[in-house]
Batch of 2 targets.
Target 1
Amino acid sequence: MNKQLKAVIFDLDGVITDTAEYHFIAWKQLAEELGITFDRAFNEQLKGVSRMESLERILALGSQADRYTMAEKEALAHKKNEHYKQLIARMTPDDLLPGILDLLRELKRQNIKIGLASASKNAFTVIERLQIGAYFDTIVDAAKVKNSKPHPEIFLTAAEQLGVHPSTCIGVEDAQAGVAAIKAANMFAIGVGDKEALKEADYIVETTADLTYDAIVRAFYRE
Ligand code: BG6
Ligand code: MG
C-alpha cells in the first residue's frame, strides 16, 4: 500500500471558525432590506460561493435578477461586506471552532503540510484575528484563483504550492460547493456539518469537535 497522507487543506468559513454564520447574518439583513427572505436551507447554496454569485442567487430567489444595474449590484455586495467586516472585527482566538487548534498542532507535529483554500477576500483578516497564520504552509484565497468552487482550481493550487500530489491530500469543507471542488480535485473530502447536504464527501463529521487527527487519518487510509 503506497497511499500516503501529506497535506490537509482547510476551507476557512464554517470549518476553522464560525464565520459562515456571520456571512448568513449579513446576507439575511441585506436580503430583508430588498424584501427577500431566505432560510438556512437556502443558505446552504451560498456557502463556499463568491460574494457576487451569492448576491445573484439571492436576487434570483426574490425574482429581482434584472432589477439592478451592475454598479448597483456592486454597491449591494459592498454593503453586505461592510456589515460582515464589522462582525469579524470583534473576533479573537477564542472564536476558533472546537478541536481545530489541537488538529493544527498535531498535523504540524506529524509533519503533515497545512493549506488554506478560501473563497473569501476577507480570509487574511480572519486568519489574523484568530492568530493562526503561522500554522499554514500556504494560503490560497479568492484573489489568487479565477474559478470559484465547485471548480477544483483553489484546492489544486494549494496542493501545487505545497508541492504534493492531490491524491495525498485531505480537503475539509462545510459547503456543498466545497466538497464538490475537493472531489473534482481528486482529493479525499471531509465534510463538516449536515450529512444530507454534504453526502458527496468521503467522510462526514457533525462538528469540528469530531475532527481529530486520529479520526481523519483512519478515514483517509480506510478508503
Ligand atoms: C466563502 C463563504 O468562504 O467566501 C461564502 O463560504 C462567501 O459564504 C465567500 O460568500 C466570499 O467571501 P467574501 O468575504 O469575499 O465576501
Ligand atoms: Mg465554508
Target 2
Amino acid sequence: MKNGKKYALLALLLPGILLLGACGRTEPAPRESAAEPALENAGPDAARPVDASEDLKWWQKTIAYEIYVKSFKDSDGDGIGDLKGVTSELDHLKALGVGAIWLTPCYVSPQADNGYDIADYYNIDPAYGTMADMDELIAEAGKRGIRIVMDLVFNHTSNENRWFRESRSGAENDKSDWYIWADPRADGSAPTNWRSIFGGSAWTYDETRGQYYLHTFLPEQPDLNWANPAVRRALGDVANFWVDKGVGGFRMDAITYIKKPAFEDGTPDAGDGTVSVHAMTANTEGILDYLHEFKAAVREDADIFTVGEANGVSAEDLPDWVGPDGVFDMVFEFGHVNIDLPDEMNWCETRAWTLPELKSLFAASQKTTARTNGWYPMFLENHDQPRSINRYLPAGADRNAGAKALATLVLTMRGTPFLMQGEELGFVNVSWPSIEDYNDISTKNHYQFAIDEGYSEAEALAGVHRFARDSARTPMQWDGTRQAGFTTGEPWLPVYDDYADYNAAAERQDPDSVLNWYIALAALRGEHAELVEGSYEELFHEDERIVAFVRESGAGRAVVLINLSTEPARYDPSCVENAVQLLGTHGESEKGVLAPLEAVIFET
Ligand code: GLC
Ligand code: MG
C-alpha cells in the first residue's frame, strides 16, 4: 500500500488522533507535548505507530515557509504587505504542502529594522492589520492544516517599547535593570570597544541616565537584560500569550546573544579598533540555563515547536541545543550560510569554497542531530540571506534548472524544510545601481563599513549585490499585472523587474516551472515517507559536482542525486542498480551520469 493511502486509512481508523493533511501527510495529534523527546512521541497506545513516520511530530513531517509580511501581499493598497494579504494567499501555500508559516514580526514597531524592533509584543502593528486579522489568519490557516509560527525577538526590543522608556527614565524605577546599562569610561567613551552587528559602536549614550546602553544590533534595538529574572518572566508571559492564541510555534530571533559576558575590550578586528559584538557575546557560558528556564516556562501542553536562530552554535554544540536534552526543537545554524563569507561584516572579502566543504557542514549537523535524537531545519534562504541561486550555484548556471536542483536538496534532505517566500518561484538577487536604491539599514551600514575600510564604491556596491538582505525582501510576484499583483498602490520596495516571467500565476500554468517542481517534490514527500522519516547517509562525499544521499526507513529506500555544477557529472551507478526513478528534472535519467544541474530521485 502506498504510504499516502496507509495514512488515510489510519486517519479513518483513529478519528481525533490523526487528521489527514495536504498531500496525504498526517497532521498532528492535538495536544502533544513539545517538551517530549523528538522521535519518542508516544500518544495514546491505540495510536501506536505502524511505521516510523507516525513517531514524528507534525512539524517534523511538514514543510515550513517564511513570510516576510511586509512583502507578501498587500490587501489595502498602501504598498505594505499585511495579514489580510497573507490570509488571501493561503491556498498558494497549501498547494505547496506547507504546514507551518513563519511570520516575520508583525507586532507594533517603529520599523527601524522592519519589525525586528518591537514596541509592543501584545499588539499588531496597524500597518499589518489588527489582532482580529491575526485571529482570522490563525483560524483560516488552521482550516487548511497550516499553523502560524511567530517570530519572538527576545534579545532586544524597540527603543520605543514602554519597558525601555521606563528603564531609561532614570536609575530608580521598576525597569531600571531591564536593559544593559553601563557607566562611561573615565574619558566618557563607551564601556567597551564592541561593534554592533550592523556596524558602529554597540553602545549608545543616554543623557538622562548618564550611562550607555548595549545594542547588539541598531541603537533603536536596546538589548534586554536576561540576567534579571523579571525580564525572563515577562518574556515567558509573551510566549504563553501567543500559545494561547493557538500559534504552532516560535522562531527565536538572535537568541545566541542573550547572555552577556563581562564588559571587557576584545582584540580589534577592524581598522577603527572595534571588535564584533558577535565575537564577544555569542553563545557564552550560562546561556543554556536561561534557555532551559524559558523552555520550562512555555506551557507544557502546547503542541508547538521552537526553532532558534543560532549564529555562533556549531554542529558540535548541537546536542546541548536540540533534542530531548536541548533547549529548542531545532536551530538554524549558520555554517553553510557563512561558507562564502569569512567575516560577516565585510561583504567585500568572499571566500572560494568547494562542494565537499558544503556537504561536510550538512553532514556534521545531520550526524549530530540523528545521534542526539534531535531534528534539523533544512534551509538555504531566509530574509537575511541572499537568494540561493546566486549563492550556491556556479556563475552562469541556468536559473530554472538551478532552482530545481536546490529545491531537491532542501526538500529531500533529512529535516523540516524551511522555504523563503519567492524561493519556490526561483527568485534571484536584485542588483540595483546605487546604494540609495536599497532599503535595509544593515545593507547601508555594511556598505559604509566597506567604504570606511578603504574599498572603492564599486567594490562596496558589488558586496551589496552579493549579500544585501533586500534581495530576499522584494515583493512577492503573484501575476504579470502592474506591481506583480502585490499591491494596487506603490510598493514599499520595488518589485523586481523579472515579474512578467517569474510569478505564481504564470508558473502554475507551466508544467516545467520551478513552482511545479516544488509542488511535485512536496507531493513525493507525502507518498514516500522515507523522504521524511528516513535515515540519512551521504554518498560520494569527495565528488566536486554531485550531492547524493540515501534516505531509508521501513517505508522504503530513496537515493537522491543532484548535480550542482554546470558540467555533466559521472557517478558509479551501482547505488541505483535495479532502482526505479521517482522524479527527475530532466525526464528519464541515464544511470551513471547526470546532466548539468540535473536532480533525480530513485527508489531502490
Ligand atoms: C535576526 C533577524 C534579522 C534582524 C536581527 C535583529 O538576525 O533575522 O532580520 O535584523 O535579528 O533583530
Ligand atoms: Mg497594506
